[in-house]
Amino acid sequence: MNRYFPEGELIGNVENTRFTSSREGMEEAMAKGFILESVAVVCTCEHDLIVDLPCGKGIIRREEGAVGIKEGVTRDIALLSRVGKPVCFKVTNITENENGPVFMLSRREAQEECLEQYVNKLNCGDIIGARVTHLEKFGAFVDIGCGIPSLVPIDAISVSRISHPGDRFVNGQKINVIIKGRENGHILLTHKELLGTWQQNADLFSVGQTVRGIVRSSESYGVFIELAPNLAGLAEPHTGIRPGQTASVFIKAILPDKMKIKLIIVDTFDCALTHTKLRYFIDSGHISNWCYSTPASRKRIEAVF
Prior knowledge:
This protein has helices at 14-20, 23-32, 77-80, 107-117, 198-202; strands spanning 36-43, 49-53, 56-60, 86-97, 100-106, 127-136, 139-143, 149-153, 174-183, 186-190, 210-219, 222-228, 231-235, 246-255, 260-269, 289-291, 302-304. By secondary structure, the chain is mainly β. The chain is 12% helix and 39% strand. The longest helix has 11 residues, at 107-117. The protein folds into 3 domains: 14-115, CATH 2.40.50.140; 122-195, CATH 2.40.50.140; 198-269, CATH 2.40.50.140. It is built from 5 helices and 17 strands. Strand 9 and strand 10 (186-190) form a beta hairpin. The protein is elongated.
């Protein structure tokens, strides 16, 4: 069973609270090599992280802040960006000053253990949990365990096309991802295969319904409206429509052989973006292959892991 979680999973955990609440608990964690978590409250001028502990002062020296910092492979922004957020660590030393115990901590050692015992043992097709850490136009960066970063490219987020990962995710969101491969020591991830096939998504809707959708693009030949992250339909051209608007649409036809849904726009309006909980058709375990296409369709969209 995996015990290497994205940072933030252990905060509030009974065991984590017990160990971080007293010097005796921290001594036990150090002796047993446990990975703990607490919040980084300051990054000093030297880029050391000061960690908020109920039982004393925690310090993560710069070179202990992340795998690759000492070697120059990881940039110091990886430390600065943790201020105000949970960080994982192993206790490496305990001293005392006039203000009480001082705990020397290593996030690097926690990450190295996570890499050795968990990440490096993952196989293509394995489904794992991750947490979104920040969003860029080209994709979503996620924590796959103990602050170890990886990227979900924008075209791997969903079948329905989006203009920015922020259309689908928010920072801090817990998601599931699939190991797609490895390249130059980095884990490659994908996400869209977990959101269901065309038929699985189409089965959630019926001809004659009027439902909510999101305008994704307006072309000369029609308007693409997303009904679900892995399902979009096409309505006739419509003036005054902008991508990102909410639409109420009437479902005119569902055509599995062509993998098309014909829509009629009832109304469009501006609506503050709200992220609904993602529906995962697969949320754990391992997959070897995935086919988005319907059996009757000539078009094949599939992935092999």
